[in-house]
Design a protein that fits this description.
The chain is 37% helix and 25% strand. The chain has helices at residues 11-22, 24-31, 59-63, 81-90, 100-117, 134-140, 155-166, 171-180, 189-192, 195-209, 228-237, 298-314, 349-360, 385-393, and strands spanning 2-7, 35-41, 55-56, 68-73, 94-97, 121-122, 146-152, 219-220, 239-250, 253-264, 276-283, 287-294, 338-346, 365-367, 375-379, 383-384, 398-404. Strands 7, 8, 9, 10, 11, 12, 13, 14, 15, 16 and 17 form an eleven-stranded mixed β-sheet that branches. Strands 3-2-1-4-5-6 form a six-stranded parallel β-sheet, with helices on both faces. The N and C termini lie far apart (50 Å). Bound molecules: L-homoserine. L-homoserine binds next to helix 7.
Length: 405
């Protein structure tokens, strides 16, 4: 029997206990051992709940119990999660976590401790909710050099953008529903400002490229400036607006960014709606691969955590090697990246298009909306971020801009 302790009985923690209680036979068969939840740690009381008898309030009880071989950290936030995880690993207990803040900030250090102790630090649920993506990068796509990862990595923002487009909901209504459904972070700023997707692409990029991507160096824009008119223009032009997290290797340059993009109908990410996430990976041998599934929510996330518990059980005294080293990966400045841009212009097309083309060169599309008679929009040709910024600074009629994928 393998004893585990679950730190945190919130949405994901209660999901972990529920998943283990839902499929005990098949989970135990796949793990090759019986998995027993010996403790649940939480500051709160849960009278009448099935975990009442195994609830503890002091982490030391778990740390000092040599029978606990695997610790499941699903508290979220950096502290006290970091302290508890580090102490658990140093005590020889494997750790499975869904905590992307923790993994993005301390991943290399915690992986190194696990390596030294010949145990495991696993974090499948930290990116993409229930979608298997960490294990495929670590174990399946190992014949390839990864050239690009582009994904919809935040369920809350994808839910908001989908509802704004499909149902005409306003931003606040969609956010409130996402919070009620348990998708959003405690502080939804992390979702809507792109910080959550930023941490997730930092984790994926570090695993894919082998060196540590500092999430604080990733260019990050959220969706708070996206308006109903931006969405209407996108629809008229045949695009959807998606918050994309992306990293790319071009020769010796590495780019990473999070921002809303116009995504066209031919792109598989166009059809990824609601809380679903999708991750596109390009390898130099395999070509293109896509991963798709529920990106947030109690049971999908708990499913990924429990899959790590099974893996940790199968490798109790053997470290599963990870490619992610502590060496820093230097990112190339965003100024060097090239995009097409959607640009909304204040003024009539007849008066302003010439000024716009004098600045940006010949544009690829021009569009007007029935409900917005005093403005129009264009899509520019490819230009570097630096050139685009310089050119748009000279025009005083720009309402908004969004990159085009
Ligand atoms: N708030 C996150 C999301 C939860 O919406 O994707 C899953 O990491």
């Amino acid at each position: 029997m393998v004893n585990i302790a679950v730190l945190g009985y919130g949405t994901v923690g209660s999901g972990v206990v529920e998943v283990i209680n839902t499929n005990p036979e098949s989970i135990n068969k796949k793990a090759g051992e019986e998995i027993n939840v010996k403790y649940v740690l939480d500051l709160r009381e849960f009278p009448g709940s099935p975990i009442e008898k195994i609830l503890v309030h002091d982490f030391e009880t778990i740390l000092n119990d040599d029978d606990v071989q695997i610790v499941v950290e699903v508290m979220g936030g950096v502290e006290p999660a970091y302290t508890f995880v580090k102490k658990s690993l140093l005590a020889g207990k494997s750790v499975c976590t869904s905590n992307k803040e923790l993994v993005a900030k301390h991943g290399p250090e915690l992986l190194e401790i696990a390596r030294d102790k010949n145990i495991n630090f696993l974090f499948e649920a930290s990116v993409g909710g229930g979608i298997p993506i960490i294990r495929p990068l670590n174990s399946s796509l190992t014949a390839d050099e990864i050239m690009e990862i582009t994904g919809i990595l935040n369920g809350t923002t994808n839910f908001i953008l989908s509802k704004m487009s499909d149902e005409g909901w306003d931003f606040d209504e969609a956010l409130k529903t996402a919070q009620e459904l348990g998708y959003a972070e405690r502080n939804p700023e992390a979702d809507i400002e792109g910080f959550d997707a930023c941490r997730k692409i930092a984790i994926l990029s570090s695993l894919a490229f082998g060196n540590n991507v500092d999430f604080e160096e990733i260019y990050t824009e959220g969706i708070t400036k996206i308006s109903a008119l931006d969405v209407a223009y996108a629809k008229k032009l045949g695009y959807a607006i998606k918050l994309l997290a992306s990293s790319k290797k071009e020769d010796d340059n590495f780019y990473a960014m999070v921002a809303p993009f116009f995504v066209d109908k031919l792109n598989p990410l166009y059809a990824v709606n609601g809380v679903f996430n999708a991750i596109f990976v390009k390898g130099n041998v395999i070509g293109d691969v896509m991963f798709y599934g529920s990106g947030a929510g109690k049971l999908p996330t708990a499913s990924a955590v429990v899959s790590d518990v099974v893996d940790a059980t199968k490798h109790l005294h053997r470290n599963i090697h990870s490619y992610w080293s502590s060496k820093k990966l230097e990112l190339t400045s965003m100024d060097e990246a090239n995009f097409k841009y959607f640009v909304r212009i204040n003024g009539k097309k007849a008066n302003k298009l010439k000024d716009v083309e004098d600045s940006f060169g010949k544009v690829l599309e021009v569009v007007e909306l029935d409900g917005a008679p005093d403005e129009f929009a264009v899509i520019t040709d490819f230009t570097s971020e630096k050139t685009f910024k310089e050119r748009s600074a000279k025009l005083d009629c720009i309402i908004s801009t969004i990159r085009v994928k």
